[in-house]
Amino acid sequence: MRKIPFLLLFMPSVLLADEVYLKGAGTISGRIVEQTETTITVDVGGGTVGVPMARVERIEKKRSPLDDYDERAAKLGLQDADGWRKLGRWASQQGLSAQARGAYETVLTIAPNDEEARIALGFVLLDGRWVTEEESYQARGYVKYEGEWMTRNEAQALEANYQASRNAERSAIDAEVAALQAQQQAEEAAEQAEDDQWTQYNDPLLWGGYGYGVTYWPSTPSRPNRPNAPNRPATLPARAPAGGRR
User: Fold this and answer.
1) How many of the other CB atoms lie within 10 Å of CB of 132?
2) Closest Cα partner for 32 from 52, 56, 55, 15?
3) pTM reported for the whole predicted model
4) Cβ distance 117 to 104 under 8 Å?
5) DSSP code per residue over 188-212
6) Which residues of 138-158 are buried (b: 16+ CB within 10 A; e: fewer)?
7) Helix 65-74 / helix 97-110 crossing angle, nearest 10 deg
8) What one-character DSSP code corresponds to residue 3?
9) What is the pLDDT of residues 38-82, one digit of tens each?
10) pLDDT, tens only, 97-107
């Protein structure tokens, strides 16, 4: 099937509002801005959401708050501070965060010190002037730690606790590594001792008498494979005196 994208931005506003029902559960309410064979993109007011068409059960066209916002905004004049303020308030109640911000920003172009618009946009009144929330905290000596504003003492205490936890964790890991290394060294020492014992056990001994010449005693056994080594004598037999009999 040929991919057929189509934009709906220039259709009448009533046709741009859709309810997208997803398979299984859930719906997305907003305005379709693009639809292809594989994906549908919906403007939900605070941004756009893309959904695979394979997840879409059906689409119902109906009027949405976005359409109402556009209709109301089109009726307002550029100097109507009260009208834009009311529209920003209404958009906030409808969950249209981007539209609400736009309306309140329009208010500030008309009335820069409008209290409702300033507060809605995150400004704080500090010493008779409007500043951002960040500027307000910084002016009062606060610092941001892990995404939260707090006093320097609070931040230093949290950092100290974090470092102590990290150090304890590092010490535990070091102790575990040391224990494993000690175990490995002990096993290697035991293997070396076993090798030394077998080397001594298989040394050739010179035997005299009866004209037999050089003799290996005891006869060399085959070396067992670790770890299941055969039973070996607890002690080695005593050597016979040179030139004599046992």
Assistant:
1) 13
2) 15
3) 0.49
4) yes
5) HHHHHHHHHHHHHHT--EE--STT-
6) eeeebeebeeebbeeeebeee
7) 20
8) -
9) 999 988 877 889 999 999 998 887 777 888 999 999 999 989 999
10) 999 999 999 99
